C-alpha cells in the first residue's frame, strides 16, 4: 500500500478560499444524538449513537416504512379499509381512539400514526402486514427487516414503541431509517409536514402534530417524536434549507421544552456552522500514481464526478488531505478505473474518502519497457553494482531458429569502421 501524503493543502486552499477546517462542537444534554447532512453524506455529530435505547414512539417509523413498502409492491393500497381488532383498540396513550366497529382507510391510518402518533393505528397496520396476523409476529418481521437494512442495534417487541423489555433502537439506526423514508418514499414523505389531522372529528382536541419544530421557519418538515418514562423525550427530525437537507436524532431529553429547544438549536447549528464547497469538477487531476509494466510510468488520478464537501466555516486550522492507493498500479489500466482515494480530514468531523480514477488509458508495455522495469528492480535490489550484471536478453521460444552470431573479425571490422 502506497500512502501518498501529498499535502494537497495548496490545491484545496485554492479551491476553497475563505474556509477553515474546524467547527464549534455541539454540546447537547440528550442521552444520545446523531446529526447527518444528507446532501453530502457527512456525519456532523455522533453522541452515544450506536447505544441501543428505548425509542418510544419513534419506533413507529419502522412500521411506517414497512407500510410504504407494502403499498409500493401492491400488498396494500392507500384506499383499502382495515378492521380494528380488540388488541389494537385496547392501546392507551397517543391514540386515534379507534374501536372494533371501525374500518379505517390505510391512508387515514398513516396520518393517524404520523400526525397523531396513534398506538392503535400502528397496531392495525401491523396486524394487516404480520405473517401470522398478530402484532407480535409483525414485531419479529420488523426486527428482521431492520437488520437487513443495516440497523443492527434495533430490536422490536411491538409496532409502536409501547414500553417493553428488549424493545430498543440506537440514534444511528433511527437516522438511517429516516434517511431511507425520505429517499425511498418521496411521495409519502410530505405527510410528515402536515400539522393537523382531524380524522373524523371524534376527538377535536387530538388533531395536532406533536413535532415541535414544524412551522418555525427553519425548513423542518418531519419526522417523529417519542416519549415514555424510560425513554425520556426524543425527536427524529429533518429540515431542508436551499439544496441542503439534514437529518437529526435526539434521545433521552428530560422535557418537551428541552426537546423543542434542542431540535431548533441543532438545526440552526447544522446549517450555520457548515457550508458546501466544491472540491473540483469531474476530471480534475488531484495526483499521479506510479504504473508497473506500462507504456508510461505514471497515470493521472482524477475526480470521477463534480465533488462537493461540507466544511466548517470557523477555524484557524488547515485541512489535511492525502492520496492513498495500492501501488505501483499494474498495467493495463483503463480510463475511469478506480485506483485511489482522496482522504480529507477536518477537525471535529469524520474523514471523507473520495474515489479517484485513472485519467487516461495506459497500455501494457512492450519488450523494452519491461526490460527497463526489470533493470530498475535489479538495481534497487543489488545496488549500483547491478549495472554490471549480464545484459538482459529475452530467451528465444523453444524450437525457434536463431541467427548465427557474427564472426569475431566481422565484429572487429565493424568496430574499426
From TrEMBL:
It holds the Pfam family PBP5_C. Residues 274-364 form the Peptidase S11 D-Ala-D-Ala carboxypeptidase A C-terminal domain. It is an enzyme of class 3 (hydrolase). Residues 388-417 are annotated as: Disordered. Substrate binds at residue 224. It catalyses: Preferential cleavage: (Ac)2-L-Lys-D-Ala-|-D-Ala. Also transpeptidation of peptidyl-alanyl moieties that are N-acyl substituents of D-alanine. Its EC number is 3.4.16.4. Belongs to the peptidase S11 family. Pathway: Cell wall biogenesis; peptidoglycan biosynthesis. Residues 405-417 have a biased composition (Acidic residues). This is serine-type D-Ala-D-Ala carboxypeptidase. It comes from the Bacteria. InterPro entries: Beta-lactam/transpept-like, Peniciliin-bd_prot_C_sf, Peptidase_S11, Peptidase_S11_C, Peptidase_S11_C_sf, Peptidase_S11_N. GO terms for biological process: cell wall organization; peptidoglycan biosynthetic process; proteolysis; regulation of cell shape.
Amino acid at each position: 500500500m502506497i500512502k501518498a501524503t501529498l499535502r494537497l493543502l495548496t490545491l484545496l486552499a485554492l479551491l476553497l478560499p475563505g474556509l477553515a477546517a474546524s467547527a464549534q462542537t455541539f454540546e447537547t444534554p440528550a442521552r444520545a444524538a446523531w446529526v447527518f447532512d444528507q446532501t453530502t453524506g457527512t456525519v456532523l455529530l455522533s453522541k452515544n449513537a450506536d447505544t441501543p435505547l428505548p425509542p418510544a414512539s419513534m419506533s413507529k417509523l419502522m412500521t411506517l416504512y414497512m407500510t410504504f413498502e407494502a403499498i409500493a409492491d401492491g400488498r396494500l393500497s392507500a384506499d383499502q379499509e382495515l378492521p380494528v381488532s380488540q388488541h389494537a383498540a385496547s392501546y392507551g396513550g397517543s391514540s386515534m381512539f379507534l374501536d372494533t366497529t371501525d374500518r379505517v382507510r390505510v391512508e387515514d391510518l398513516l396520518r393517524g400514526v404520523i400526525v397523531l402518533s396513534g398506538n392503535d393505528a400502528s397496531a392495525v397496520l401491523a396486524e394487516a402486514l404480520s405473517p401470522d396476523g398478530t402484532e407480535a409476529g409483525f414485531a419479529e418481521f420488523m426486527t428482521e427487516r431492520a437488520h437487513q437494512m443495516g440497523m443492527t442495534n434495533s430490536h422490536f417487541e411491538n409496532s409502536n414503541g409501547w414500553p417493553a423489555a428488549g424493545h430498543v433502537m440506537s440514534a444511528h439506526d433511527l437516522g438511517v431509517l429516516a434517511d431511507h423514508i425520505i429517499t425511498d418514499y418521496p411521495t409519502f414523505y410530505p405527510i410528515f409536514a402536515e400539522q393537523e389531522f382531524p380524522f373524523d372529528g371524534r376527538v377535536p382536541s387530538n388533531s395536532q402534530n406533536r413535532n415541535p419544530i414544524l412551522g418555525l421557519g427553519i425548513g423542518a418538515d418531519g419526522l417523529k417524536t417519542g416519549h415514555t418514562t424510560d425513554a425520556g423525550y426524543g425527536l427524529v427530525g429533518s429540515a431542508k434549507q436551499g439544496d441542503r437537507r439534514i437529518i437529526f436524532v435526539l434521545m433521552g431529553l428530560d422535557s418537551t421544552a428541552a426537546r423543542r429547544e434542542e431540535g431548533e438549536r441543532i438545526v440552526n447549528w447544522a446549517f450555520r456552522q457548515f457550508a458546501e464547497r466544491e472540491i473540483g469538477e469531474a476530471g480534475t487531476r488531484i495526483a499521479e500514481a506510479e504504473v508497473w509494466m506500462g507504456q508510461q510510468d505514471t497515470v493521472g488520478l482524477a475526480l470521477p464526478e463534480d465533488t462537493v464537501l461540507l466544511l466548517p466555516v470557523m477555524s484557524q486550522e488547515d485541512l489535511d488531505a492525502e492520496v492513498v492507493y495500492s501501488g505501483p498500479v499494474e498495467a493495463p489500466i483503463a480510463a475511469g478505473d478506480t485506483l485511489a482515494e482522496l482522504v480529507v480530514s477536518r477537525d471535529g468531523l469524520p474523514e471523507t474518502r473520495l474515489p479517484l480514477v485513472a485519467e487516461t488509458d495506459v497500455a501494457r508495455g512492450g519488450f523494452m519497457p519491461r526490460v527497463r522495469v526489470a533493470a530498475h528492480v535489479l538495481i534497487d535490489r543489488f545496488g549500483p553494482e547491478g549495472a554490471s550484471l549480464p545484459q538482459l536478453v529475452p530467451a528465444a521460444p523453444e524450437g525457434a531458429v536463431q541467427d548465427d552470431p557474427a564472426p569475431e573479425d566481422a565484429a572487429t571490422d565493424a568496430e574499426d569502421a
